[in-house]
Amino acid sequence: MTELIAYKSLIVVLFLLVLFIAERYAPAVAAPEKTVTAQRTTTNLLLWFCNSLLSPLIILPVTLYAINYGMSWRSDWQEAWLGSWGGLLLDLLVLDLWIYWWHRANHRIPLLWRFHRVHHLDHWLDVTSSVRFHFGEVILSALVRAVVIVCLGIPLLSVIIFETLVLMNAGFHHSNVRLPSRLEQILSRLIITPSIHWMHHHVVQQDTDSNYGVLFSFWDRLFGSQSKNKRTADMEIGLEHSKDMNLLKLLISPFKSH
Questions:
Q1: What are 198-223's pLDDT values in tens digits?
Q2: What pLDDT is attached to residue 83?
Q3: b or e along 129-157 (b: 16 or more beta carbons within 10 Å of the residue's beta carbon)?
Q4: Please, how many CA atoms are within 13 Å of residue 194, restricted to the half-sphere of its CB?
């Protein structure tokens, strides 16, 4: 188990590092100097560091408990009806469907939005935006996901593979990497790509409340939440009437009245 988690972390970090380098040599959109500062990048990475500290203390124990509890009834059913590959595919679809609705709930429920807005207060998008989350959202997400894991008996391997794919694709669709238009068009039929997710971070409220998908793109099409607009080079990222905040202000912002 420890080796699987270590491999997952290594794969994700290396992939994000490749994207970090690639978007500096082949950006899709020229980054505004006043927005993309060293302070902003450092803030995003410090939020990631804070959440990384929480993983062995809260996130991992909660997830493992849920897996062990849920698997007590799942294993025989999986082998009898689906087999390992069929079970894995179903697990990935179910977990991604859950995260789609969880993301949507974060935009609809005021308490959840208090934490999730920290992610949307970023005034630019690059690979570091994919790790910019408040620890409150991370903890709440882990707790709700644990319920899903228990109810469906999702095994450890499925959870690790799903987390790896989600973290890698989150880095990808937040990134500012230039892609051939034809390639992105093909990829977007199955997974969330930068042009899709950038619209979700558009300052216009209608676009912010769309494109909730995290891994697979077909949920937005299926549930009618796909934005009809297209990404442009001059589109403004962030939230209306919002200001840049340092790390401390971001951490305490969910607990203040807005």
A1: 999 999 999 999 999 999 999 999 99
A2: 55
A3: bbbbbbbbbbbbbbeebbebbbebbbbbe
A4: 24
pLDDT given for residue 75 in this prediction:
60
Query: Which ranges of 55-109 would DSSP assign to H, the alpha helix?
Result: 60-81, 83-108
| Alpha helices for 26-59 (secondary structure H) | 38-54
> Alpha-carbon distance 179 to 177, whole Å?
6
3-state secondary structure of 27: strand
Residues 6+ apart with CB under 8 A from 22: 175, 177
Residues in the chain: 258
Tens digit of each residue's pLDDT (9 = 90 or more) over 82-140: 557 888 899 999 999 999 999 999 999 999 999 999 999 999 999 999 999 999 999 99
Backbone angle region of 173, left / alpha / beta, with phi > 0 → left and psi within -120 to 50 → alpha = alpha
27 forms beta bridges with 177
| Among 231, 190, 189, residue whose Cα is nearest residue 210 | 231
Closest CA to 175 of 163, 165, 186, 167: 167
Between CA 233 and CA 245 the distance in angstroms is: 24
Rounded Cα distance between 95 and 149, Å, is: 9
Token pair of 73, please? 């009834």
d(CA 193, CA 189): 9
Q: Tell me which DSSP letter residue 56 carries.
A: I
